[in-house]
Write a structure and sequence with these properties.
The protein is of the alpha/beta class. It has one domain (5-180): 2-enoyl-CoA Hydratase, Chain A, domain 1 (Alpha-Beta Complex), CATH 3.90.226.10. It is 48% helix and 16% strand. The chain is built from nine helices and nine strands. The chain has helices at residues 29-45, 79-89, 105-108, 139-147, 149-158, 164-169, 182-194, 198-231, 234-247, and strands at 5-10, 13-18, 50-55, 94-98, 101-103, 115-119, 123-125, 162-163, 175-177. The strands form two sheets. A six-stranded mixed sheet has the order 1-2-3-4-6-9, with helices on both faces. Strands 5-7-8 form a three-stranded mixed sheet. Helix 1 (29-45) links the parallel strand 2 (13-18) and strand 3. Helix 1 (29-45) runs parallel beside helix 2 (79-89), helix 2 (79-89) runs antiparallel to helix 8 (198-231) and helix 4 crosses helix 8. It is globular.
Length: 248
């Protein structure tokens, strides 16, 4: 079996590719832990100056693998939350290249990236409420700050799909590019960042994030308890059963 995360390092740029195309790159526990480990260790290695996140086969990610939501969770941080915390605590610039679709945590993780490039035919959806769940990824705190409260309510409460053009207009994206070019563009910008003085670069990012990091971790803690409750709810379990019946 091929690894669920493909790793490429070139001239200070670490590219992490979610590689579960048979599941539309849905993120399972093992994949989260691999991603978290690579992000967390990148800063310690000293030779990584920028990180690019993308998905295999022209698809970003279908979000959390719903099969994992049907098994009991151990107390404390989930594997997905460990990955999100690694993004928040990383002083290395993080860039995302979005082709195809980004769903659920595939959208909320983008709040913690410094640059987000999407294909012009990309689509986004945060379907927590339709799945009987509630916001995660600190979206209860950050999304309204990024796109405004009305748009955040629309995306989070209705759970409807929205286009790359709408996401750009809402300031959720850095730019929209022709389909098939986002990874090359992200790696070009990452290489530009990697060529800058690394200590100044990382200090500047740390300063930009300083005032909000504690708030984000508090939001993670707040959301975790509620999200865990929702996973056990009849509404959520019925929604998951309906999903698998439809897609089997």
């Amino acid at each position: 079996m091929s690894p669920s995360v493909l790793v490429q390092k070139n001239n200070g740029v670490l590219t992490l590719t979610i590689n579960r195309p048979e599941r539309r790159n849905a993120l399972d526990i093992a994949t989260y832990l691999l991603l978290a480990g690579h992000v967390s260790s990148a800063q310690d290695q000293g030779d990584v100056r920028a990180i690019v996140l993308t998905g295999a086969d022209n698809y970003f990610t279908a979000g959390n693998d719903l099969k994992d939501f049907q098994t009991p969770r151990a107390p404390g941080d989930s594997a997905g939350l460990r990955f999100l915390r690694s993004l928040v605590d990383c002083d290395i610039p993080i860039l995302a290249a979005i082709e195809g679709s980004a769903i659920g945590i595939g959208v909320t993780m983008l709040q913690h990236c410094d640059f987000v490039y999407a294909a012009d035919n990309a689509s986004f959806r945060i379907p927590f409420v339709p799945l009987g769940l509630c916001p995660e990824g600190a979206s209860s705190l950050l999304l309204a700050k990024i796109v405004g409260p009305r748009r955040a309510s629309d995306w989070l409460l209705r759970g409807r799909a929205f286009s790359a053009a709408e996401a750009l207009e809402a300031n959720f994206l850095s730019s929209v590019l022709p389909a098939g070019t986002t990874l090359a563009h992200a790696q070009t910008i990452a290489a530009e960042l990697a060529a800058l003085p690394p200590q100044a670069l990382q200090l500047s990012k740390r300063m930009l994030k300083h005032a909000h990091r504690a708030q984000i971790h508090d939001a993670f803690d707040y959301e975790l308890g509620l999200f865990t409750q929702r996973l056990k709810s009849e509404e959520a379990q019925a929604a998951f059963a309906g999903f698998f019946k439809k897609h089997n």
